[in-house]
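Input.
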Amino acid sequence: GTVESRKKEHAAAYAALTPEIKTLVDQGRIAVGMTADAVEIAWGSPAQILQSGGKNGVFTTWVYRGSFLQDTRYWAGRRYPYLAHDYEPRTYVSAEIVFANGVVQSWRTLPQPAN
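Output.
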């Protein structure tokens, strides 16, 4: 979905956001201090949700995944070998957002791996 479609789905949650946060969400951006609702409208649902704990309490990490087609080359043909190639879909972790007490504590985006 798009930011627009998610705003409609979560209309009440979007309406409750501050004007500053609404502006970021509209641009598909996130920031430290945002609630999970705001992040979900900006970026959509995560691929995975991880729980972790430490001396500073319990943290929830939302993991987002991206995908790309990897060019794979291989030798084909028995009698007359030739170099063939194929595209295989690969996924990778594209972003991680760490929440503490229901708000964004930190976040990072990760680059697509080189082909």
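The longest helix spans residues 19-26.
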